[in-house]
Amino acid sequence: MASAELQGKYQKLAQEYSKLRAQNQVLKKGVVDEQANSAALKEQLKMKDQSLRKLQQEMDSLTFRNLQLAKRVELLQDELSLSEPRGKKNKKSGESSSQLSQEQKSVFDEDLQKKIEENERLHIQFFEADEQHKHVEAELRSRLVALETEAAQHQAVVDGLTRKYMETIEKLQNDKAKLEVKSQTLEKEAKECRLRTEECQLQLKNLHEDLSGRLEESLSIINEKVPFNDTKYSQYNALNVPLHNRRHQLKMRDIAGQALAFVQDLVTALLNFHTYTEQRIQIFPVDSAIDTISPLNQKFSQYLHENASYVRPLEEGMLHLFESITEDTVTVLETTVKLKTFSEHLTSYICFLRKILPYQLKSLEEECESSLCTSALRARNLELSQDMKKMTAVFEKLQTYVALLALPSTEPDGLLRTNYSSVLTNVGAALHGFHDVMKDISKHYSQKATIEHELPTATQKLITTNDCILSSVVALTNGAGKIASFYSNNVDYFIASLSYGPKAASGFISPLSAECMLQYKKKAAAYMKSLRKPLLESVPYEEALANRQVLLSSTESREGLAQQVQQSLEKISKLEQEKEHWMLEAQLAKIKLEKENQRIADKLKSTNSGQLVGLAQDNAAVSSGAGQDEAAAKAAAEPVQSTSLVPDVESREDLIKNHYMARIVELTSQLQLADSKSVHFYAECRALAKRLALAEKSKEALTEEMKLASQNISRLQDELTTTKRSYEDQLSMMSDHLCSMNETLSKQREEIDTLKMSSKGNSKKNKSR
Fold first, then answer.
1. pLDDT grade, residue 618 (50/70/90)?
2. Is residue 424 scored above 70 in pLDDT?
3. Which of 379, 532, 592, 630 makes an SS bond possible with 626, Cβ 3.0 to 4.6 Å?
């Protein structure tokens, strides 16, 4: 194979080489022809230069002759001017001489006229020859430049082809070397593979003999020991408990939780959409506060008012489905019984949509027939009516597929197992169709709202209601998009999880067998849990012996120790009662002391005795600074207070009552404060929990956006690298082309400079001549 590939490559390369060689020969012929043409043009240029030089020499000789004749004319004019005065003196004698001079003058004039005419004719010939020479020279120069550019281009093409040819030769040589190395390595690998195949055949033979012996042994054991094989028949095999896949269950519960959140958002958006639509009917085109609306809109509003009874069960059905998926169950289509209830709730909502659809279409037609409706608004209403029909059709399609998915848990013959994957795929297509319809509704309703806001009769209530409907439609669009993308991301997992079922079988046969299997699974789990009960902790043997010796050596029995404990507890209670009693006595004594001190101070103030006032102040300072016992002792020692320290029974009871009432009030205030704080903390915890849930949702959305952004960034980076490489290649090619053009231009400039220098030298030589 490698040699055949090499021969094919070499044949292709030989064909390319022959083509390039033929092109090279053609280009060489063209270059030779152009070089011959340029040589002929150079020879013509030389001939023209020679003729030009001859003409310039003739012109120089003519100018020299002309100058001589002009000098001679001037001399004759001078002689004539000198001869005129002499003729006046001797007119008679000079008549003969004047006649001679006139004859000579006429001869000279004729000769001069001829010379002037000849000079003029030569000047004209010279000028024409010069102009023709310049024109021919310019044409030849332009042709020379064009030919040189063509020659440079041909040379650049030839250089490029030769370079390409050399590169292809090098590449072919490198490929040849690589292929030779590869062929050698493949030959070595083929030899090794032959050796390995021989070893594997020997091992296979040994394993076949070993497995055949084991098979015979196991078949004999099965025939002798196994009375019944429950995996032979699918009806019995469906009752076997499959292996517990905890990862699968956690994944399904996570997916169900996400679906529940999306359905809750969708239910909220649907409730808002129907409610705000009902409010809009009461406002536009006729405000119910000003005038009565049409009977059609009244009936439509009445139906829309019942939307919660059809929309809320969707959330409840999804919640029951989520709660039915736990870690201990087996989640497949045959065991998800709660999917049937969700399908029924979805069917009731579809009936609600069918019921309100004709009223909705008639309401839009009524808006179109009103005098306030413009042509643009009428077009938007028609588009919205089409969108509402599409929305109902999409929900019906989705309900059909959900009902089909609910059949395996109730009617096993209603849907074949081979059609599960196609139904799941169609559910994804229906969700994407629902998203597209909601995008169209959002677009058309936003256009409708902007047109209605520009109407002169648009009220603030209508504008607010339109904004609310638009926000609910946007929420519906976002929710549909999230559900569609979520389902598309997980549909492969749904299809792969269809094989999760009994061992060595195609799946559960019926819902009854699946229910029995779940009961057997619970019993098996309970049995395994009972087997895995931890043993009670026991005391080590050495420690038990030591404790027994301690018990035997002790003289006190258990009853004696119990009596001692009881006696000590009674003593502690008595001491606590006495402590409380004496604390109350000390408080009462302190209160009485303060009263007596106040009374003494009042008496001393009335008698204006400074000593007694100082004594009362000393007593007050002592009573406030000392402790409870010292205050009672000093109060008993004073002669003035000795009769008033013994409290009566009524004042003592009042003081105790007031003390306990104050204590109760303080405790109730503390209890109320604690209750208020607990309620506040509970509200804060609920708010924080809600914020945490929202933050998690936003985190998930941001992670998805970040994944998409990273994918876009990687894609853009790849595109940037490819474009950068292509631009670099183009720039390198352009730079090579510019370099070659600069070289040719420099050569042409050098040739033009040499031609100019040579023409200047020739003109100087001609002038000197």
1. very low
2. yes
3. 630
Is the pLDDT score of 168 beyond 50? yes
Residue 285 structure tokens? 């085109």
Q: Above 80 in pLDDT, residue 768?
A: no
| pLDDT for 507 beyond 90 | no
pLDDT > 90: percent of the chain: 15
CA triple 688-692-693, angle to 5 deg: 120
Which whole number is the average pLDDT over 257-261? 93
Q: For residue 657, give both structure tokens.
A: 């009552």
- Residue 207: both structure tokens together: 């394993």
DSSP state of 407: G
What is the sign, positive or negative, of the torsion defined by CA atoms of 502, 505, 510, 512?
A: negative
Residue 471: count of CB within 10 angstroms of its CB: 14
Contact (Cβ atoms closer than 8 angstroms) between residue 517 and residue 338: no
Contact between residue 744 and residue 149 where contact means Cβ atoms under 8 Å apart: yes
* Rounded distance between C-alpha atoms, residue 146 and residue 154, angstroms: 12
Determine the Cα–Cα distance for residues 332 and 665; give it in Å rounded to an integer: 63
Cα–Cα distances in Å, from 727 out to 48, 719, 740? 50, 12, 20
Burial class (CB in 10 A: 0-12, 13-18, 19+), 3: exposed
pLDDT in tens, 191-237: 898 898 889 889 889 988 998 888 888 888 877 766 666 666 666 66
Closest CA to 480 of 436, 426, 445: 436
Q: Cα–Cα distance between 6 and 170 in angstroms, integer?
A: 15
Q: State the chain's maximal CA–CA distance in angstroms.
A: 205
CB atoms < 10 A from the CB of 285, how many?
A: 19
| Cβ proximity of 161 and 24 under 8 Å | yes
Burial class (CB in 10 A: 0-12, 13-18, 19+), 389: middle
The closest of 257, 398, 391 to 700, measured between CA atoms, is 257
Q: Which residue has the tokens 């002669």?
A: 639
Instruction: Give the length of the chain.
Output: 769
Tokens of 680: 């506040």
Residue 160, φ and ψ in degrees, nearest 5:
-65, -40
**pLDDT of 443:** 92
Give how far the C-alpha of residue 411 lies from the chain's centroid of Cα atoms, to the nearest Å: 43
351 contact partners, CB below 8 Å, separation of at least 6: 310
* Exposure b/e, 354-387, CB count within 10 A at least 16 = b: eebbebbbbbbebbbeeeebeeebbebbebbbeb
The tens digit of pLDDT for each residue in 235-254 reads 666 677 777 778 888 888 99
* pLDDT range class, residue 622, cuts 50, 70, 90: very low
Distance CA 44, CA 589 (A): 149
Question: Rounded distance, CA 98 to CA 87, Å?
Answer: 8
Spatial distance between the Cα atoms of 154 and 148, rounded to a whole number of angstroms? 10
Q: Find the angle CA(689)-CA(691)-CA(696) to the nearest 5 degrees.
A: 95
What residues have CB less than 8 Å from 325, skipping those under 6 apart?
249, 252, 253, 256, 331, 336
Among candidates 528, 511, 510, which has minimal Cα distance to 328?
528
Per-position DSSP letters for 312-349, written without gaps between them:
HHHHHHHHHHHHH--SSS--STTT-THHHHHHHHHHHH
